[in-house]
Specification:
- A hairpin with a 6-residue loop joins strand 2 and strand 3.
- By secondary structure, this protein is mainly α.
- Strands 1-3-2 form a three-stranded antiparallel beta sheet.
- It is built from eight helices and four strands, in the order αβαααββαααβα.
- Helix 5 crosses helix 6 and helix 7 runs antiparallel to helix 8.
- The two termini are 26 Å apart.
Length: 213
């Protein structure tokens, strides 16, 4: 699963209705262009493709004050919301997803209710434990990587990765269970998007033809 679909659907959903440049601006505000494939071309392509797939509804609106052709605003559809939540849940659970997909999921986890988020993260822990157990069937961490020659460093890395991810996941679960963050149905959520016209201190300034659409 590519992180770009989750990021774009989530950004549009946060706004309710947004044009492409707003989505791009939000993703740059979150730093997603640094830790994912959320580059301008990928963002605008994803918006158009998901509109064709029925996940987003495209509205043509009047030209911007800067002139030029009408802009397109996107609104998530019911099908898009189902896909967004599916991708979010899958990304929180799957231990074999890339770090950009997991990062996107953590950024949107508060769109779920607290109990469900904890349940999904516990499922992630189980997957990590199963993966570690599969690795240690062939590799004994206590004996060090040298037992398998330099190839043992690969399994050594896998074990350390599993242990590190598990420790981080347990810490996140503890913070959530202790009441951290505002989840769905609990009140006003954290505002993580820019208002129309609000300056983005993290904008790349890179120009792209899609910025006007």
């Amino acid at each position: 699963m590519s992180a770009i679909r989750l990021l774009v659907l989530g950004a549009v959903r946060r706004h309710g209705r947004a044009h492409g440049y707003q989505v791009r601006n939000d993703l740059e505000y979150w730093g997603a262009h640094e830790w994912s494939n959320a580059k301008p071309g990928s963002i605008y392509h994803a918006l158009k493709q998901m509109a064709k797939q029925g996940l987003l509804h495209a509205h043509e609106i009047a030209p911007s004050t800067a002139g030029g052709p009408p802009r397109t605003e996107y609104e998530i559809t019911e099908q898009g919301t189902e896909e967004y939540l599916r991708l979010l849940r899958e990304a929180l659970v799957a231990r074999d997803r890339s770090i950009d997909t997991l990062s996107a999921a953590i950024g949107f986890m508060v769109d779920l209710d607290r109990a469900e988020a904890v349940g999904l993260l516990r499922e992630r822990l189980r997957g990590l434990a199963e993966w570690r157990a599969a690795v240690t069937e062939h590799y004994i961490p206590e004996e060090g990587p040298q037992q398998l020659g330099h190839i043992g460093e690969i399994m050594n890395m896998w074990v350390h990765t599993a242990d590190g991810e598990a420790a981080w996941t347990r810490g996140l679960i503890e913070r959530i269970e202790a009441g951290a963050y505002t989840f769905a149905g609990e009140g006003e959520p954290f505002v993580g998007v820019l208002a129309e016209g609000e300056e983005n201190p993290y904008a790349t300034g890179e120009r792209h033809p899609g910025d006007r659409r």
